[in-house]
């Protein structure tokens, strides 16, 4: 589910208490949606006993019809939602007649029918608890993406791959080899979807800002240029470099200037680098360079799961499931089950999209714990939303494996051995102490037996609202559950601070005509203050950032830590000792960061 | 230059030095001499470095060469940054030998066996400073390695007057950061290299001595590799127990380099750069860097502008958990590792002896040995660099017995674990299987047991076919090598690729093996298991057909035109009669030959262009 339809029903009658908290909650939900960039979500608000309702019988009023959440909507809530002090009207039985909640809920269901979907979740929660959940970044709701199919093709075993590719390469349909009728090969249609993809925090965009004006959106223009040196007496400087060291130092002070000359498309020449040589690229040669590939997965063989190192895996895995036809689903499931039975994984050669390159990969079988809606009943009517259940479905994780060229194993230390009084290898006593520590810091769950087949849990809720999560019986052990239910601090703390800033600038009280952005720009100190205060709260609760997996009590942990630290004797080296240390010879290169650091083009630097 | 970019500024220079001896020319393995094998390895190293570290400098020199010159060192090619010219020279040397035109013993005759002199090693050292550096950057080599190949185990032949200066010169190499890596080869006759004299003048690691010619490949590969440091940080093992570690990048997916745009200026090419500027979309006026701000969108109608200092402050996780650092949260049995919960490429952890803590290597070794003994992996939390997002990691020892055949360095591999935010939703179509799988599972289990890769997956056995093709084509183009077949013809090209692609060959070998057993009646043979499996699956297909006999709703999708349809329409000039969707689907199905486009006219133009060309070729 990537598009969520949320409907708020707000009772404005004089009997309602804490309407301000309810408004705060709605604003918080809407704000969290806009901060996360939930562009597909739709929200609607329906009011009950609204003073603007004139027609009788009063049913409730659509305050906001289903639309994308916007900052404007959040801003308007304070002025448009408030308690209507007009007395309620009662019928002869003493029931509230006027703008009754039941009538309003009927209106809400009519509005909800626009979503063409059934309600997926309902829960009741105290408003204070709901607000607490909203404020806790550790309960933050991940951004949910629509699953996009990235592969739809064949998983093949023992097929004549050469003939298949020749058939793909030719314009002829004369098949010499037909894999679908070949009795000694196997073809299963499968589909692939992203399984894990690293989620990054929101990214900023550039805006142009001249003081006293509203910041504007900008357009990025790219021009191709060559730089022409325009410093006079170039050659003279070069000669001096060789002749006279002192004069060379003088010339270093001269600023070298370049003229930027635009290049038109006709003058551009495409080349490939081969070391420091450049090879011009003509259109014919470019055609020759193309390596034709055709989508498909071919099994190279099988290996025992524990013999294939997990650290070989590269990139983000893809989830493979059986194709639509019963034959494919059954064949795929049987293959998964047999691999699980013998604890093996598949080694494959694959191309997910034609012309996208060839890769080697591993297929890891596992069970997916899926929340599945049951089929329609015999009468063809839709079943109720609670007629869904968690079922195990077979899946395979496709991980990319490195080629020979991708593996860079340098020459490093020998670290195995025991030696008394040595600076580089531990003594027997040290090893014994470490063994004890490793045993005590065990986080395997001793109470639960390891499940025969581990299930992969995907999001076990499908609501973006910070409501208590449904209690799904997990097939995973407690430690994996704790790990996989933890939220990314960098995303959720960042989002929370953005929300704090917006709240601090008090959405309702902005000066007429001044945008939120302009207000923030005009008062950077206030922003600094919000960030500092939010951050100070986190510093105070620093342990909460880490997932607590320890199974031993703090006292015991401290005791074993102390004795281990004593025997291993690792001390902090002072700055003074460092500067007196031996000259450092290194054959190391720092490579490009994958995190949030400044981006440096390693290719450009290596190629110069 | 910024501080960060300085860290990248490494320029490796490798000199291969081969001491010619009569035994070096003698047949050693598969009819090849040791010299031929060494030169073939040098050629292979160049081909690898062109892909992985194209800025490296390589030189190849001979000593004891009777070239009629007084120089003690003879260059096959001088030390210089990798280029096609050196490739050509080496190719020519080996080609002349293999073709019998000019064997290596004639190309490189031996002067006479004489002891190694200190002067020779002094000359070798000076090669790094005299080398031609790249014209534009003018960078000197700051990482210098000499690979010395010899089977002469008497470098000073017992002469102590030669030994002392030799030892001193080689010791001086350390002061100028030159690493000499000896390849002390056993003689082809099988006589082991006597390391006595070398151990007097040189400190070297154990695996250098008495090596067979077949072992040099792996040793070159390890020593040529630059240690790609990805991060350095403390590792907190327990309270009051921290060590310093380094993280290396050991797996990096190589792809062909990007196209480089240049302008032809007669004899030289001038690099073309890209200049970016931000402008007002309405007025076209350029914004200066001072006028640019960064803002986070808040829906479609608002934004939150933050300056770089404010963003930096929000990312100040190091204030909270004293990071960049890693902290061990606990240990688990390796059988509990679930590979479906990992992503990204692993970093390799090694002790950092120049870090902030004493005895890091000893404690690291202690932890590694203990975890290996107990078959454990660790769960860690932390961040690897300043401003990087904190994460959970799994840490697996490379020394576990099951990974022994992988021949990995000793240390830990650090693997990213996902947060809930990183796990994607399941596809809506996912459905359980409501069928009895027993028979099929048993047949599959039979297959899995038989198609078993004995050595597991060894990356060094799998070359990337598309990458190799790219660089082969570039090299062949420069060396003007002619191919026996016409690779401009798609079918011929595919046949040629089929013969080169080793990943395919491996899969075809499996098929050939199955085919061999196809006529055997034994039901346990692979071919028979596959036949039985297909029969079982066909029953399900037939059942599907019967069950889905309901009339289908007529489809409104237009069929994808066949090749014949397109060719006939092209001849008749009626390509316009197809719908855009039909043309697009056709072009996509032939995307190895035809370029796709968004407009119908462009699609037709691309098809027309292709057939025009084919027509001309056929006519010619």
Automatic annotation (TrEMBL), chain A:
Domain named Ku: residues: 260-414
EC number, as in UniProt: 3.6.4.12
Subcellular location: Chromosome, Telomere; Nucleus
Keyword terms, alphabetized: ATP-binding, Chromosome, DNA damage, DNA recombination, DNA repair, DNA-binding, Helicase, Hydrolase, Nucleotide-binding, Nucleus, Telomere
GO molecular function: ATP binding; DNA helicase activity; double-stranded DNA binding; hydrolase activity; telomeric DNA binding
Group of enzyme by EC: hydrolase
GO biological process: DNA recombination; double-strand break repair via nonhomologous end joining; telomere maintenance
Region (Disordered) location: 232-251
Record's GO cellular component terms: chromosome, telomeric region; Ku70:Ku80 complex
Organism domain of life: Eukaryota
PANTHER family according to UniProt: KU AUTOANTIGEN DNA HELICASE (PTHR12604), X-RAY REPAIR CROSS-COMPLEMENTING PROTEIN 5 (PTHR12604:SF4)
Protein name per UniProt: DNA helicase
Species annotation: Komagataella phaffii (strain ATCC 76273 / CBS 7435 / CECT 11047 / NRRL Y-11430 / Wegner 21-1) (Yeast)
Gene: YKU80
TrEMBL record, chain B:
GO terms for biological process, alphabetical: DNA recombination; double-strand break repair via nonhomologous end joining; telomere maintenance
Main localization category: nucleus
GO CC terms, sorted: chromosome, telomeric region; Ku70:Ku80 complex
Keywords: ATP-binding, Chromosome, DNA damage, DNA recombination, DNA repair, DNA-binding, Helicase, Hydrolase, Nucleotide-binding, Nucleus, Telomere
Compartments, record wording: Chromosome, Telomere; Nucleus
GO MF: ATP binding; damaged DNA binding; DNA helicase activity; double-stranded DNA binding; hydrolase activity; telomeric DNA binding
Enzyme class, UniProt record, top EC level: hydrolase
Pfam families associated with the record: Ku, Ku_C, Ku_N
Entry EC no(s): 3.6.4.12
InterPro entries for this protein: DNA_bd_Ku70/Ku80, Ku70, Ku70_bridge/pillars_dom_sf, KU70_core_dom, Ku_C, Ku_N, SAP_dom_sf, SPOC-like_C_dom_sf
Family: Belongs to the ku70 family.
Name this protein carries in UniProt: ATP-dependent DNA helicase II subunit 1
Organism from which the protein derives: Komagataella phaffii (strain GS115 / ATCC 20864)
């Amino acid at each position: 589910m990537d598009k969520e339809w949320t409907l708020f029903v707000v009772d404005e009658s004089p009997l309602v208490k804490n309407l301000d908290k309810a408004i705060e909650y709605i604003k918080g939900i809407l704000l969290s949606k806009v901060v996360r960039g939930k562009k597909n979500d739709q929200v609607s608000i329906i009011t009950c006993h609204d003073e603007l309702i004139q027609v009788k019988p009063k049913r409730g009023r659509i305050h906001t019809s289903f639309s994308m959440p916007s900052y404007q909507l959040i801003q308007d809530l304070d002025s448009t939602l408030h308690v209507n002090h007009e007395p309620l009207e009662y019928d002869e039985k003493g029931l509230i007649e006027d703008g009754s909640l039941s009538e309003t809920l009927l209106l809400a269901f009519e509005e909800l029918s626009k979503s063409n979907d059934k309600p997926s979740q309902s829960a009741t929660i105290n408003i204070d608890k709901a607000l607490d959940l909203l404020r806790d970044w550790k309960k933050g709701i991940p951004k949910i993406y629509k699953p996009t199919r990235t592969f739809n093709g064949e998983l093949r075993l023992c097929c004549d791959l050469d003939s298949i590719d020749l058939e793909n390469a030719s314009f002829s349909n004369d098949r010499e080899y037909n894999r679908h009728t070949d009795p000694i090969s196997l073809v299963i249609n499968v589909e692939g979807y992203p399984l894990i993809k690293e989620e990054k925090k929101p990214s900023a965009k550039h805006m142009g800002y001249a003081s006293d004006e509203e910041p504007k959106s900008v357009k990025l223009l790219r021009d191709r240029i060559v730089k022409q040196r325009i410093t006079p007496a170039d050659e003279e400087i070069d000669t001096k470099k060789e002749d006279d060291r002192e004069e060379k130092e003088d010339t270093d002070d001269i600023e070298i200037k370049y003229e930027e000359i635009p290049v038109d498309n006709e003058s551009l020449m495409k080349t490939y680098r081969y070391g420091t040589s450049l090879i011009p690229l003509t259109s014919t040669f470019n055609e020759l360079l193309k390596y034709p590939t055709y989508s498909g997965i071919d099994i190279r063989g099988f290996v025992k799961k524990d013999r294939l190192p997990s650290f070989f895996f590269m990139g983000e895995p893809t989830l493979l499931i059986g194709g639509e036809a019963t034959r494919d689903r059954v064949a795929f499931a049987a293959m998964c089950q047999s691999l699980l039975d013998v604890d093996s994984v598949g080694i494959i050669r694959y191309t997910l999209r034609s012309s996208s390159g060839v890769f080697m990969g591993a297929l890891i079988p596992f069970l997916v714990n899926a929340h599945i809606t049951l089929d329609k009943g015999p009468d063809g009517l839709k079943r109720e939303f609670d007629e869904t259940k968690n079922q195990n479905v077979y899946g395979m994780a496709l991980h990319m494996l490195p080629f020979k060229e991708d593996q860079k194993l340098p020459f490093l230390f020998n670290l195995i051995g025991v030696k008394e009084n040595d600076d580089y290898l531990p003594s027997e006593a040290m090893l014994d102490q470490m063994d004890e520590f490793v045993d005590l810091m065990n986080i395997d769950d001793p109470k639960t037996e390891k499940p025969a087949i581990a299930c992969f849990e995907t999001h076990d809720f499908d609501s973006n609202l910070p409501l208590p999560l449904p209690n799904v019986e997990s097939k995973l052990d407690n430690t994996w559950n704790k790990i996989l239910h933890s939220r990314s601090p960098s995303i959720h703390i960042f989002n929370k601070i953005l929300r704090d800033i917006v709240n601090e600038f008090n959405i309702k009280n902005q000066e007429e005509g001044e945008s939120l952005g302009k207000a923030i720009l005009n008062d950077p100190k206030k922003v600094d203050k919000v960030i500092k205060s939010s951050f100070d709260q986190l510093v105070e609760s620093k342990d909460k950032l880490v997932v607590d997996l320890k199974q031993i009590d703090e006292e015991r942990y401290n005791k074993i830590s102390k004795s281990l630290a004593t025997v291993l004797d690792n001390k902090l080296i002072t700055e003074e000792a460092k500067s007196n240390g031996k000259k450092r010879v290194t054959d190391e290169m720092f490579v490009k960061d994958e995190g949030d650091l400044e981006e440096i083009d390693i290719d450009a630097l290596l190629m110069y | 230059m910024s501080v960060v970019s300085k860290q990248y500024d490494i320029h490796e220079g490798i000199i291969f030095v081969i001491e010619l001896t009569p035994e070096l020319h003698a047949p050693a393995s598969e009819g090849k001499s040791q010299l031929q094998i060494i030169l073939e390895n040098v050629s292979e190293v160049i081909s690898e470095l062109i892909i992985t570290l194209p800025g490296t400098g390589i030189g190849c020199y001979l000593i004891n060469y009777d070239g009629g010159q007084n120089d003690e060192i003879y260059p096959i090619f001088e030390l210089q940054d990798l280029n096609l010219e050196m490739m050509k020279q080496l190719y020519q040397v080996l080609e002349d030998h293999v073709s019998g035109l000019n064997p290596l013993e004639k190309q490189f005759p031996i002067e006479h066996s004489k002891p190694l002199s200190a002067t020779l090693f002094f000359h070798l050292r000076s090669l790094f400073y005299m080398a031609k550096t790249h014209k534009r950057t003018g960078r000197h080599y700051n990482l210098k390695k000499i690979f010395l190949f010899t089977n002469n185990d008497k470098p000073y032949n017992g002469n102590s007057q030669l030994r002392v200066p030799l030892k001193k010169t080689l010791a001086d190499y350390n002061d100028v950061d030159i690493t000499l890596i000896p390849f002390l080869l056993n003689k082809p006759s099988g006589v082991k290299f006597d390391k006595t004299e070398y151990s007097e003048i040189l400190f070297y690691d154990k695996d250098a001595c008495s090596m067979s010619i077949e072992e040099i490949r792996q040793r070159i590969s390890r020593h040529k590799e630059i240690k790609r440091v990805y991060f350095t940080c403390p590792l907190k093992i327990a309270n009051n127990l921290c060590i310093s570690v380094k993280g290396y990048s050991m797996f990096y997916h190589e792809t062909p380099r990007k196209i480089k745009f240049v302008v032809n200026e007669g004899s030289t090419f001038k690099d073309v750069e890209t200049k970016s500027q931000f402008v007002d979309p309405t007025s076209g006026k350029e914004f200066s860097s001072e006028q640019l701000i960064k803002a986070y969108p808040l829906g479609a109608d608002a934004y939150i502008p933050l300056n770089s200092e404010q963003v930096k402050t929000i990312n100040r996780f190091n204030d909270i958990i004293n990071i960049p650092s890693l902290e061990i949260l606990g240990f688990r049995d390796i059988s509990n590792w679930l590979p479906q919960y990992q992503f990204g490429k692993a970093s390799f952890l090694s002790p950092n002896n120049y870090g902030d803590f004493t005895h890091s290597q000893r404690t690291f070794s202690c932890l590694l040995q203990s975890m290996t003994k107990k078959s454990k992996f660790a769960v860690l939390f932390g961040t690897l660099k300043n401003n990087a997002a904190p994460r959970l990691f799994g840490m697996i020892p490379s020394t576990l017995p099951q990974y022994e055949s992988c021949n990995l360095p000793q240390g830990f591999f650090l693997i990213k674990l996902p947060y809930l935010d990183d796990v994607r939703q399941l596809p809506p179509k996912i459905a359980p299987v409501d069928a009895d799988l027993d028979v099929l599972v048993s047949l599959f289990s039979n297959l899995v047991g038989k198609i078993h890769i004995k050595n597991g997956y060894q990356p060094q056995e799998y070359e990337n076919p598309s990458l190799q093709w790219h660089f082969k084509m570039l090299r062949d183009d420069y060396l003007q090598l002619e191919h026996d077949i016409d690779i401009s013809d798609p079918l011929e090209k595919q046949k040629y690729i089929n013969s080169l692609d080793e990943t395919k060959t491996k899969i075809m070998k499996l098929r050939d093996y199955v085919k061999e057993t196809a006529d055997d009646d034994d039901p346990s043979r692979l071919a028979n298991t596959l036949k039985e499996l297909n029969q079982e699956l066909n029953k399900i297909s037939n059942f599907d057909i019967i069950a889905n006999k309901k009339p289908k709703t007529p489809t409104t999708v237009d069929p994808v035109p066949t090749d014949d349809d397109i060719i006939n329409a092209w001849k008749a000039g009626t390509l316009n009669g197809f719908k855009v969707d039909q043309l697009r689907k056709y072009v996509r199905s032939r995307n190895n030959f035809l370029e796709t486009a968004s407009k119908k006219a462009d699609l037709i133009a691309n098809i027309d262009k292709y057939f025009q060309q084919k027509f001309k070729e056929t006519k010619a």
